[in-house]
Amino acid sequence: MQIQILKSKIHRATVTEADLNYKGSITIDEDLIEGANLIENEKVEVLNVNNGARFETYVIKGKRGSGQICLNGPAARQALVGDIIIVVSYATMDFEEAKKFKPALIYPNAQNRLK
């Protein structure tokens, strides 16, 4: 049996930008991408703590060390600059493998830097 399980989580990052005129996605500081074991173009779910919005998009690399969290295109309508979000991705794996799997969980500080 295959199940979906949490693979990666950026917990409580702050939205720094929202660009409605971009073609879509979420731009994330490359340090956070690596810390959370994400890759560019990976599908993610974004959860907005401030307004309860939940939506799917994909990752674009932002400048390393910038603290950038930018919602692009239609996603820009789901949050305001300053909102707190959680970014998660999931993996599909065998049930027994999933029991042993440990997700990559990161908790950036208020400037979206790794602690």
For this entry, give a set of tags.
mainly beta; eight-stranded mixed β-sheet; Barwin-like endoglucanases; 2 helices; 115 residues
Please characterize this protein's 3D structure:
This protein has one domain: Beta Barrel (Barwin-like endoglucanases). It has an 8-stranded mixed sheet. 10% of the residues lie in helices and 47% in strands. By secondary structure, it is mainly beta. The model has no long low-confidence stretch (mean pLDDT 97). The protein is globular and about 40 Å long.
Strand content: over 45%
Q: Provide the CATH top-level class.
A: Mainly Beta
Instruction: Please tell me how large the radius of gyration is.
Output: 14 Å
The total number of structural domains is 1
Number of helices: 2
Count all strands and give the number.
8
Structural class, by secondary structure, is: mainly beta
Distance between the termini: 37 Å
- Helix percentage range: 10-25%
As residue ranges, the low-confidence spans are none
CATH fold-level label: Barwin-like endoglucanases
Morphology call: globular
Present the secondary structure layout.
Blueprint: E1 2-14, E2 17-19, E3 25-29, H1 30-35, E4 43-48, E5 54-62, E6 69-72, E7 84-94, H2 95-100, E8 104-106
